[in-house]
């Protein structure tokens, strides 16, 4: 089994559609609903939480893109986790919560407001959507543990792990 443990680098909640999300130290994740106080909560039975890789954000910034985590429309920023290689059905434990990956995120149009090149630049590295299987509170710095290893990584990611 491939072990994958990362951590939460940032938690973001947006109360207004079309505006960026704001950083918070912790958030309540409600099973079958989403992040308490987030404008996307309760709108989709599958896409309840959005996750984005801190490493991808850092790379974009180092390449000169003026983008912040708040502008990405993601709820959870991860670190040290092969986020974009996880397949649907993979479960993650974050603190007391359990999430299940449901689909890859696609670059949204709001990225073109930052830079027209961004959607194409990060296609395939835009994070994941997950549903909340077990609710609870998540905090910055919490470990993210991959619980299920079936269909865990793409073949390419498995080769790079060796």
Describe the model.
This protein is an alpha+beta fold and 162 residues long. The protein has a single domain, classed as M1 Pyruvate Kinase, Domain 3. Helix content is 15%, strand content 34%. It contains 4 helices and 11 strands; from the N terminus they run E-E-E-E-E-H-E-E-E-H-H-E-E-E-H. The chain has helices at 54-62, 110-114, 118-121, 155-161; strands at residues 5-13, 22-24, 26-30, 34-35, 49-53, 76-79, 91-94, 97-104, 128-134, 136-139, 143-146. The chain has a 7-stranded mixed β-barrel with strand order 1-6-5-9-8-7-11. A hairpin with a 2-residue loop joins strand 7 (91-94) and strand 8 (97-104). The longest helix has 9 residues, at 54-62. The two termini are 12 Å apart.
Looking at this protein, list some descriptive labels.
alpha+beta, 7-stranded mixed barrel, 3-stranded antiparallel sheet, 15% helix, globular, disordered C terminus
Protein topology:
Elements: E1 5-13, E2 22-24, E3 26-30, E4 34-35, E5 49-53, H1 54-62, E6 76-79, E7 91-94, E8 97-104, H2 110-114, H3 118-121, E9 128-134, E10 136-139, E11 143-146, H4 155-161
Describe the structure in brief.
The chain is α+β, with helices and mostly antiparallel strands and 162 residues long. 15% of the residues lie in helices and 34% in strands.
């Amino acid at each position: 089994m491939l072990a994958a443990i990362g951590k939460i680098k940032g938690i973001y909640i947006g109360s207004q559609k079309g505006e960026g999300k704001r950083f918070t130290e912790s958030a309540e994740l409600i099973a079958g609903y989403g992040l308490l106080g987030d404008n996307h909560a309760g709108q989709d039975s599958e896409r309840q939480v959005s996750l984005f890789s801190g490493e991808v954000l850092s790379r974009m910034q180092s390449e000169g893109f003026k983008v912040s985590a708040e502008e990405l429309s993601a709820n959870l920023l991860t670190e040290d986790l092969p986020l974009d290689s996880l397949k649907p059905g993979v479960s993650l434990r974050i603190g007391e919560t359990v999430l299940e990956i449901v689909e890859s995120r696609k670059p949204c149009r709001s990225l073109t407001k930052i830079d027209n090149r961004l959607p194409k630049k990060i296609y395939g590295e835009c994070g994941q959507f997950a549903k909340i299987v077990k609710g609870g509170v998540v905090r910055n710095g919490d470990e993210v543990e991959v619980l299920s290893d079936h269909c865990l990584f793409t073949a390419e990611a498995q080769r790079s792990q060796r």
